[in-house]
Amino acid sequence: MDNLLWTHSKRGGKVVVYSIAVVAAIWVLLPFLWAIVNSFKTLEATFSAGAIIPFLNFRPTLDSWNEVLSDPQSINSLMSSAIVAAGTTLLVLVLGTPAAYSLARFEFKWQSKDIALWFLSQRVMPPVVVLVPFYILMVQLRLIDTWSGLILLYSTFNLAFCVVIMRDIFRDVSKEVEEAARIEGANLWQIFWMIALPLSLDGLIVTAIIVFAFSWNEALFASALTSQHAATLPEFILSSRSTQGVNFNVAAVNTIIAIAPPVIMSFFVQRYLARGLSFGAVKG
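RESULT FIELD:
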């Protein structure tokens, strides 16, 4: 159907579509190209006008990479980001997946769609609104500058996303299969663990990847609640400004390192992303 519509489209419409696609590609790729080029420059070369083409406008060097990879604080922030993002993803899936299955299969005093809407509303609220209350709470719990504090905090914001997405995914799982298992004597936990979860694997992986990316990229609460030990990579990039200004070559290296893990993960689970993102698209 899509190919047929494209074949019979007028030339003007195709030109508009191609133009929008080219502009969108440039808009997305330009920051990546900037980071890659500047990561192989010296600090002086980053301020040289027109220094874009290697070996012609500037001489590539690995000094910026050596500086970043030899910095203990940079390695510590990378490890902190990995631990916090992985811990948040695991906690969100452990708590959110059973909750999503309950909303998809059981009836409550309030309708399931109203409960799901309440969960979704937690993602609509600007995070900065609750920054001060969460900071005071973390101080009282003595979780400032700790991995566990960030994991609990990030889970609070990403749990709603997991519940809403997984609810629609579980609703697409055939109830007949679960009813047949119940007739054979399977209990509720066995149905959930051995039938519902395997049939929803694509959506579960997609949810995990997106939660991981959200946690990996978060900078606001990381910069407010961490100082050194649990500082994540986004917070480290924000605090990399020196007394002389921003070292753009070092910032470019940190940007590439920060972008790489989610991008690499998406390549390995690409087939799950294509199938999982279409899960739950029919039912509301």
